[in-house]
């Protein structure tokens, strides 16, 4: 039989469920109902107390450590921003160089790929040439002075000088069976006769004078109205 400390009740229990303790342990823990939780509580209190009682030296070390961490973080952020700025500048420089290169290539192309030719009818599209007086007017190319400039003549016989290739555009004849010169591509320089136009697609079908059984489909920009006498041309 075993007598319980708190209730003073006598109970019958197997001896294997009992543990012999010293008088000191009995007096200390006899009236504690849940010793495991009490032990956990005191352990947590001891841990919290140790944190509250941190020495000034330890606190200072922690402060310096955190200060160094913040400094390294700021330096890292600064380096990241610097790298980002460098990358952005490089991108802008590359973009600028690419744009300059394209402009240079475009200018070079405009000089080398000359399509102007005497006896072509072209339209003036530069609003600033001669203060816009001849804007949208159709004129005849009289002479090609350089690879980029020409001399033209109006229907009234007015001679216009210093017209650059960029100031004019090709003209497509309104009438069918009109003659044109191919000004770009594989058949550049050849004469032909228009047999069909597709305004919705800006294309025209041209029968080559040099080969009557051959017709090619070309964009409007690739052909220009020809004002010369095709009967005197070698292609005819």
UniProtKB/TrEMBL annotation:
For this record, the Gene Ontology CC terms, alphabetical, are: spliceosomal complex
Q: Which InterPro entries match?
A: GPKOW_KOW2 (IPR041994), Rib_uL2_dom2 (IPR014722), Spp2-like (IPR045166)
In which residue ranges is the amino acid composition biased (Basic and acidic residues)? 58-100
Note down the stretches annotated as region Disordered. 43-112
One biological process term in Gene Ontology: mRNA splicing, via spliceosome
Q: Which domain of life is it from?
A: Eukaryota
One Pfam family per UniProt: GPKOW_C
Question: Mind telling me which PANTHER family this protein's record contains?
Answer: G PATCH AND KOW-CONTAINING, G-PATCH DOMAIN AND KOW MOTIFS-CONTAINING PROTEIN
Could you identify this protein by its name? Answer: G-patch domain and KOW motifs-containing protein
State the species of origin.
Lingula anatina (Brachiopod)
């Amino acid at each position: 039989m075993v007598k319980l400390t708190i209730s003073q009740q006598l109970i019958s229990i197997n001896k294997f469920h009992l543990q012999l303790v010293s008088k000191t342990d009995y007096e200390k823990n006899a009236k504690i109902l849940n010793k495991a939780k009490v032990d956990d509580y005191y352990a947590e209190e001891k841990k919290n107390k140790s944190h509250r009682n941190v020495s000034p030296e330890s606190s200072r070390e922690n402060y310096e450590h955190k200060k160094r961490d913040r400094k390294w973080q700021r330096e890292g952020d600064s380096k990241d921003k610097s790298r980002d700025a460098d990358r952005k500048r490089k991108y802008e420089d590359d973009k600028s160089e690419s744009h300059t290169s394209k402009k240079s290539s475009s200018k070079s192309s405009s000089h080398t790929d000359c399509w102007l030719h005497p006896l072509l009818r072209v339209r003036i599209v530069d609003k600033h040439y001669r203060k816009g007086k001849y804007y949208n007017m159709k004129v005849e190319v009289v002479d090609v002075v350089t690879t980029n400039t020409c001399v033209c003549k109006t229907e009234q016989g007015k001679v216009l000088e210093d017209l650059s290739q960029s100031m004019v555009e090709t003209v497509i004849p309104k009438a069918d069976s009109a003659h044109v010169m191919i000004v770009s591509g594989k058949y550049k320089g050849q004469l032909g006769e228009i047999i069909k136009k597709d305004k919705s697609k800006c294309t025209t079908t041209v029968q080559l004078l040099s080969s009557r059984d051959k017709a090619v489909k070309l964009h409007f920009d690739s052909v220009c109205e020809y004002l010369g006498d095709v009967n005197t041309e070698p292609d005819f």
